Amino acid sequence: MATLEFWFDFGSNYSYLSAMRIEALAREKKVQVIWKPFLLGVVFKALGWETSPFVLQKIKGDYTCRDMARQCDKYGLPWRQPAAFPRTALLPMRVALVGADQGWIAPFARRMMTMNFAEDRDIDNLEAVSEALAGLGLDAGAIVALALTPDNKLRLRRQTQQAQALHLFGAPSFLSGGELFWGNDRLDDALAHAAGARSLSM
Amino acid sequence: MATLEFWFDFGSNYSYLSAMRIEALAREKKVQVIWKPFLLGVVFKALGWETSPFVLQKIKGDYTCRDMARQCDKYGLPWRQPAAFPRTALLPMRVALVGADQGWIAPFARRMMTMNFAEDRDIDNLEAVSEALAGLGLDAGAIVALALTPDNKLRLRRQTQQAQALHLFGAPSFLSGGELFWGNDRLDDALAHAAGARSLSM
What residue ranges do the domains of chain A occupy? Predict the structure, then answer.
């Protein structure tokens, strides 16, 4: 089956637009999504940006608020301007890695994204993560324990280093057969590329 | 008739994608395009960026080269990576203002954009501008003389100040009824907004 890597951070508002839509769109195109959480803040800092460009450049940040409201309206997604931006999400990102192994990362990611961008809740805490896991019928205690092992913490750092090695500089980013697509606005192109690559290889 | 303002600079590669497509798309939606040349470099400098973000941030610039090739392929537009970027275009921008008055700005803009982004030619000189005007059957000498009057030079500065007053921070930008849309990726949304505003007012 054709695959598309979806690189995201729970703190990234444009990642929210993709996280909520990608599985349905990928199903239509018979593409399998490989969810790749990585620490966008680490990537930004290495590029010399102390925080999100939307904070560093207020004029662009103000525009982004309006753009997000319009985009969510277009896609039929709920949206509430987060009181804190960008929200840290270290614990949810570590948990998401476990979810990637165990097959529940997509619904978990949608739940965390909804908390951040539709419910304006902080997500980098045990309560939010446990609530999301319990909502999926999962054993929150066991999963969080797994997420906090040194091995799993190291994995998230390594995955972030891999993002840098792939020349990622923002989120969401999509990778299909070596081609990098940046931004929710390229989700359709990325899926088409992934589906096309599959057709060629069949 | 519904209108949409199209703010652009001949040096902006993503403005190229919009300049080549906007008139045909606008006709379909019965929207009139108001072409608004402004000096993007002046706006960037006022925001603290000495040149294009695609130059300041090499990793994003490298990506943009690949993205432009793919986008042009998608839209069926010719593309040659410019040897100089961003190209200055002060004379063509001044001439474009005259074209806005006289009704030939759209084909003139497409010609200048093609020289820059499909033919990899410098455009901020009398030869390039005269060739474009002659190709449209226009009197290049008379038009350039008009473009170089103090009044017309002042007009371009004022239009750039207007762009700043409207909180523009990049190009292309689109304005419909007070709503700002940034980037070629928002052209369809901007046209839909303009067409919708028209329907409401009828």
Answer: 2-201
B157 touches chain A (CB under 8 A): no
The three-class DSSP label of residue A3 is strand
Residues of B in contact with A167 (CB under 8 A): 59, 62-63
Best residue in B40, B58, B62, B67 to probe A by mutation, most A CBs within 10 Å? B67
CB-based contact A169 B57, cutoff 8 Å: yes
Cross-chain residue pair A189–B57, CB shorter than 8 Å = no
Secondary structure, 3-state, B102-155: HCCHHHHHHHHHHHHHCCCCCCCCHHHHHHHHHHCCCCHHHHHHHHCCHHHHHH
The token pair that represents B24 in the structure block: 């045909």
Residue B189 has its nearest CB partner, among A47, A70, A167, at: A70
Note the CATH architecture for domain B2-201: 3-Layer(aba) Sandwich (3.40)
CB contact under 8 A, B57 and A66: no
Interface predicted TM-score (ipTM): 0.93
A12 classed as catalytic: yes
Please list, in sequence order, all residues whose beta carbon lies within 8 angstroms of the beta carbon of residue B167, skipping any fewer than 6 positions away.
Answer: A59, A62, A63, B180
Residues B147-178: tens digit of each pLDDT: 999 999 999 999 999 999 999 999 999 999 99
- Phi then psi for B88, rounded to 5 degrees? -75, 155
| Per-residue pLDDT tens digits for A149-193 | 999 999 999 999 999 999 999 999 999 999 999 999 999 999 999
Report CB contact under 8 Å: A62, B185: no
- Asked if the C-beta of B58 comes within 8 angstroms of chain A's C-beta atoms, the answer is no
Q: Which two tokens stand for residue B142?
A: 């008379």
pLDDT tens figures, B4-21: 999 999 999 999 999 999
CA dist A187 and A25 (Å) reads 9
